[in-house]
Amino acid sequence: MLRCTLALFLMAAPALAEEVTTFALDNGLEVVVIEDHRAPVVTQMVWYRTGAADEAPGKSGIAHFLEHLMFKGTDTLAPGEFSATVEAQGGDDNAFTSWDYTAYFQRVAADRLDLMMQLESDRMRNLNILEDDIITERAVLIEERKQRTDSSPAALLQEQMRAAQFLNHPYRIPIIGWLHEMEALDREDALDHYKRFYAPNNAILVVAGDVTPDAVRAMAETHYGPLAPSDAITDRLRPAEPPQIAERRITLTDPRVSEPYVLRTYLAPERDPGDQEQAAALTLLAELLGGSGQTSLFAQGLQFGADPVAVYASAYYSGTAVDDGTFGLVVVPMPGVDLATAEAAMDDIIADFIETGPDADDLARIKTQIRASEIYARDNVDGLARRYGEALAVGLSVQDVQDWPAVLEAVTAEQIVEAARQVLNRDRAVTGWLMPEAEAAE
Amino acid sequence: MLRCTLALFLMAAPALAEEVTTFALDNGLEVVVIEDHRAPVVTQMVWYRTGAADEAPGKSGIAHFLEHLMFKGTDTLAPGEFSATVEAQGGDDNAFTSWDYTAYFQRVAADRLDLMMQLESDRMRNLNILEDDIITERAVLIEERKQRTDSSPAALLQEQMRAAQFLNHPYRIPIIGWLHEMEALDREDALDHYKRFYAPNNAILVVAGDVTPDAVRAMAETHYGPLAPSDAITDRLRPAEPPQIAERRITLTDPRVSEPYVLRTYLAPERDPGDQEQAAALTLLAELLGGSGQTSLFAQGLQFGADPVAVYASAYYSGTAVDDGTFGLVVVPMPGVDLATAEAAMDDIIADFIETGPDADDLARIKTQIRASEIYARDNVDGLARRYGEALAVGLSVQDVQDWPAVLEAVTAEQIVEAARQVLNRDRAVTGWLMPEAEAAE
Predict the structure, then answer these.
(1) Chain B residues with beta carbon closer than 8 angstroms to that of A168
(2) pTM for the full model?
(3) Which of A88, A419, B94, B266 could form a disulfide with A281 if both were Cys (CB 3.0 to 4.6 A apart)?
C-alpha cells in the first residue's frame, strides 16, 4: 500500500530542477548558486579540481596533507584562526579530499557569507606553510593512516586491490598516501602542490541557501575577483589504463580478521559529459544486484533464499569521476560457508541476471526509489551543493547534473543487461579474499 | 669424471680480476677500460643511467623510442649515416633499453675507435629529431609491440603480471610502452627525455679490447671532454613499493595458448653497493631450484621424478638493478596435468627446500659451475664490457663487480635458506596462469 501510494505521488510530482544559477568570474572561477530561502543559512563550498590522482609521482598523500595545511595560517590569519572564526560565528566547517578533487566548506548564518568568502579567498592564494605545521600535521596524518588503514585488514585489502585494479592510472594511489611516502613529504612538496593547483581558474565556488545570485556575484567579485589565475592549469590528462585482459585475485590473510569476505571490483566507465547512459545503467544495475534492503537479487539469492550462504551481500557504483572507476561487489559468507562457495553463488546470480535480465517489477521498483530519492534530495540544500560541486569538479556540467534523473529514468532493461555484460568482465576485475588464516590447500 | 676434472682445474685457477682501468672526465663522464690485446678489435659502449622506469608519467615507451631516434641524424650526420658509417668501417652497432638504462655500442677494428667516439659523442648532445622521424619510428615501434607483445599471450600475461607485481614502482611499466601511450608520443616527449637524461654526467663510457687506458683517455678527452654536463641530473629516486601484504593471482585465458603454464614472480631485493650477499644467495637459490640442466630440484622433482607433472620448470633471478626486482618461477605441466596440480607440486618443492636446505653436493656443484662460468666470462671481452657497464649504470661500483664472484663463492647453505624464507613469500608474489580456456569451476 505504501509503495503504491508513493508511486502515485511521484508520478504527479513535476520533475522540476532546483533553482540553480551559474556564472564565471573573469579570472576563471566558476560559481554555482543554489537558492533555498526556507531558512536563513548558507553553505559555501570551494572545490579544487585536484586530488590524489593529480599528485606528483612518489608524493602520495600530498593532496590530503595540503587539505590539512589549509587550516593553518595565511598572511593575515594565525594558524587555527580560520575554523575558530567560523565557530565563533556559530558555523561549522570542514574539508575532504578524493582522487579527483579537494573541497572546503562552511555552513553559517546567511549574513556571515561575506566573511566566509573573505576567509576562503584568502587561503586560496595566501596560505602560509610553516615548517612546524609540516612536522605536526605529518605526524597527525601518519597516525590517521595507522588507525584507519594499517590497523584494518579490510582497509589494507582494499588498498592492495586498488593498486592491482589500476595497471597504469593513478587511481591506484591511496588518498591517505603510502606510509613511506607520507613520511618523506615536506614543505616544498606541499607548496608545489598548492602553487600548481590552487587558483581561481581551477576552482568551483558553490553557494547554497538563503542567498540571491546577484548578492553572491557581488561578494565573489569583491573577494575572489582580485585573485590572479594560474597559467599552470592544464587539461587533466592522467596516465590511462591499457587493456585489462587477465583476471586478478588477491588474498589477504590476517589473524585480526573476524569476518572473512569476498570483495570484487571491476574497472567501470564513469559519467561523461553529455553521455551518461552507460553510467546510469550501471547505477541501476548496482541497485538491482545489491542495493540496500531485502529485495535485491543478492539479498534474495544469497541471504534469504532456500539455501542462504551469506550474511551480507551488496553492489556499489559511483560514476562521478574524471576517469574510469570501479563497480564493486561484496559478499560476507555465513559462518561455515567458505569464500569460494559464497563467491560462486554470487557469480551464479550475475550469470543468471545477464541471461534473463531484470524482472520488470524489480526495475519499476528501483526506478520509483530513485525518483523518490531525487525528490527528497531537492530538500537537502547541502546535498545539492555537494552534488553540483562534485559534478563540476570532475568535468560534468550543470546540464549533466540536471539531466541525470531523466537519464536514469530512461534506462531500459536491455541497456542494463548490456552494461552488465560489458562491465562485469572478470578479465578487468580484481577479486579479493579477506581471511584470518590460509584455507587448507584443496 | 668430467665434472671431477673440471673441479680440480677450477680450484687451481687463480681468481684474478680482468685488466680494468677506470677514470672520470671533468664533465662527469665515467670511463671504464677493459684491456684485451689478443685481437685488434675494440667495443665502445655508452650507457645512460635512464630507462623505462625513469619516464615521465603517461609517456611509457619514450626511453625505447628515443633509443631508436638516436640512429637518426645530428647537426653533422644525416639520418641513418651513423650505422652506415660503422658498417662501412667493417663494424657493427646496436643498442638496447631496459628499465634502468639505455646503452649503445659498436664493435670495430681497434684503429677505428677514434671515429666511433666522434660519432657517439656527437649524438650525446647534438641529436636532431625531425617530425618525419617521429612518425616513421612510432609506426615501427607500434608494429614491434603488436608483433612481440600483443600477438603473444605469454608476453601479455607477463606484462599484466608486472603491472600487478609493482604497486607503486615504475618497474610496472612495459619497456616497449602501453599501446595507447605509444600512439601519443611526440617530438616534444622525445626531446624532453633526451635533454633531461642524455649528458656526460649521466653516462658511462666502456671501451673494451685492444686499447690502452692512456689512448682511451686522450680520445675521450678530445671527443667527450668538450660536452657540457647537465645540471638536471638528480639522484634516481623512483616511487618505492609500499609493503606488499596480499597474494595476487592473475589468469589470462586466450584461445591462442597452445601450452598452458604457471608463472610466479616474487618481489626480490637487488644487489646493493657493498652489500651483495642476499642477491648472491638468491642467485644460487635460482640455480638450485630451477637452473638449467637435469639436476635442479625442479627438474628432479617435477620433470624426471617418479611421478612427473611438468615438461619444463625453471627459476630465474637477476639482481642487477637500481631497485627491488623479481625472483621468478615457471612450470609447464605435462599434457593432462592441470595448472593447480603443477603449481602445488612446485610449491611443495620450495617448502621442502626451506625445511631441509640444499644438499651439500648440489651446492658444491652449483658453485663449481659458477666458478667455471666466471672463468669463461673473462675470455669474452664484450660480455665483460656489458657486465661493467650494466653494473655501473645501476649504481654498483667496479669493486662490486670484481667482488661478485667471491661473494657468490662465500654464500652458505644457511644464507640460501634464509633468502628463500624471506623472499619466497607469497604475500609479495604474483602468480599467473596462462590457459587456452577457463577451467571448469571446481
Answers:
(1) 60, 163, 172-173, 178, 181
(2) 0.86
(3) A419
